[in-house]
Amino acid sequence: MPTAAGRSTTGRSTTSRRTTSVRTDRAALPTEEAAHYTGLSYGTLKKWRVTGDGPAYVRIGSRVVYLIDDLDTWLREHRVA
Questions:
Q1: In the 8-state DSSP scheme, what is residue 15?
Q2: Which InterPro entries has this protein been placed in (predicted)?
Q3: Using the 8-state DSSP alphabet, how is residue 64 labeled?
Q4: What is the dihedral of CA 63, 49, 68, 75, to 10 degrees?
Q5: What is the DSSP letter of 61?
Q6: What are phi and psi of 58, to 5 degrees?
Q7: Is the pLDDT reported for residue 35 higher than 60?
Q8: Lowest CB count within 10 Å: 17, 43, 68, 71, which one?
């Protein structure tokens, strides 16, 4: 039975833990999906991250995501008329 402080009689918290995460359903894509979205290969995007070329990306710990707005901007800027 929880106490008023949100702890059970065993001393463990009964309140749920809040976690934050990047919304990746529409706002951002992992590298594999960004490659498909742009028509580039996974390896090309990975290489360009090392050389500083390619679209902007976001690193969250060891995870890399590409914001769709950044991909669209990069594609527009590299359009050949």
A1: S
A2: DNA-bd_dom_put_sf, HTH_17
A3: E
A4: -170
A5: T
A6: -120, 130
A7: yes
A8: 17
Radius of gyration over alpha carbons of the chain, in Å? 20
* CA–CA distance, 66 with 36 (Å, rounded to integer): 12
Instruction: Give dist(CA 71, CA 81) in Å, integer.
Output: 18
Domain ranges of the chain: 28-78
Tens of pLDDT along 7-16? 555 555 555 4
Integer Cα distance of 57 and 5 in angstroms: 42
What's the residue count for the chain?
Answer: 81
pLDDT of residue 25: 54
Q: For 80, which DSSP code?
A: -
Residue 23: pLDDT over 80:
no
